[in-house]
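Predict fold of Cytochrome P450; 537 aa.
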Amino acid sequence: MPVIYQIPHLGRFDLFAFEHACPDIGFFLAHAAVKVLSGFLLYVPSPSPEFNLTMDGNASLEVDGTYDVHFGRQQRTPKSSMPINWPLLGMTPSLLWNFNHVHDYMTDVLRNNGGTIMYKGPWFTNMDMIFTSDPANFHYISSTNFHNYPKGPDFREIFDILGDGIFNCDSKLWELQHKTTMSLFNDAGFLMLLEKTIWKNVEEELIPVLEFMSEQGSTWDLQDIFQRLTFDGICNLLMDYDPKTLSVDLPYNQLERAITKTEEAIFSRHLLPKYYWKLQKRLQIGSEKHMTEASKLSDELFYKFINEKRHKRRSNICDVVKSEQVQDYTLLTGFMREYEDKIGSFGNNHDKIIKDTLLNLLIAGRDTTSTVLTWFFYLLAKNPTAEAKIYRELHAQLGLKEGQKWRSFGAKELGKLAYLHASLCEALRLFPPVPVNHKVSQEADTLPSSHHVRKNSIIILHSYAMGRMETIWGQDVLDFKPERWLSEQGGIKQVPSYKFTAFHAGPRTCLGGGRTIIYAKCIGSSPNEVRFDGQSN
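Predicted 3D structure, encoded as tokens:
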């Protein structure tokens, strides 16, 4: 009897929860996690059973004798002209009418209107926006005139729970956090910790859970499995804390649940007028009440971790990296050390900055990664030819043989997996975990597309739409085609960041893009042999 992973039908906007995370750090874990897990599901030697995934007429992925993974159908919207600007309501009715596929809808609107539109919100709500998928505009806003387009006060208000973390601050404080985070991500101790954590999660959590599910033959939510995997991983990297949420009994975890409640409340703030959610917050009702409770819980836990780590440091149990063995090295200890003499100049509370940093990285590391994993395997299931090429590459480049005992792989070995790398880039093009990005103009300006920008205008950089523009990617833009990323020599083509925006562009470019690739390749090259057999329909 097959185990069934069931993923509910989600519109594109349902996966919009990652805009608040910003791509800067989230992709640090995302791409890397996918590569590890994709290989894991594509190669697992005997005596473990062979798993064959097939897609049936209901868009489910069935693993013969083992797994059945259900995905929502991908919808195509009819070609859309400019939304109607209604009296009083503005263009909002069109967005609401197409809400279950809003990203596809906006892609068609932008495609048919030159890549940039002026969106009119309801009267008196200050919700007018400029949507753009034009690479020239993206490059100008994110790089050329970067300082005129910070996240802005509205963004900071909506994401106030992120405090002074890297995704919610601008100017000098952002520069300090950006520089510090980049330094820590390139530290040899962190790189060893990253590799150690990935393989530990795969071997001790993911494999036992998959084996248990294959024996039980019941229904499982695949997206939940990925989210638990990445949550455990980022907690280990940040705080040396293993919540063990990915186990056969799928335990409840207070911190993980608090993060989820926080994201649900932030999503609601995007949909509701500011006065309404602020009233909810003042009265402590609805999602705002849940957000307050979640914030208190997460604050308590983070401050507990900070105090415990400080006590260890004072007891001379310090960060040590000796003979390729990681001892008590975490990002938390790194930030505590780096911020010790620097935060005071900003007039900020030292522990609060660290707490905000932990929360920002935790949200980014969990959500972006699990989203990439989910969409990547969805695309592989629909494209068995690409899956077969990845499988052959794993055996050819890593020297894997049938029946060989599973082992972990180093960064150099994973670097040989060009087709897997290309497949991940293609998945990120079609389904970026951060489909839109929010900016606000400090001063009036004119975009390269000749659109006038007023002071304090909201700009929406639509990465999802940009990844589906024929003018950028060709007539086969909707095809999953990893070959578009491969050069004639078999390497990876370098595409400008303002065209391939999964890692953003400019000063806020993802700090951990390269490390993300490593994480993803590791997940993709792990044990047990799972073959995806795509059926028609």
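Confidence is low (pLDDT under 50) at residues 1-37, 43-77, 319-326, 527-537.
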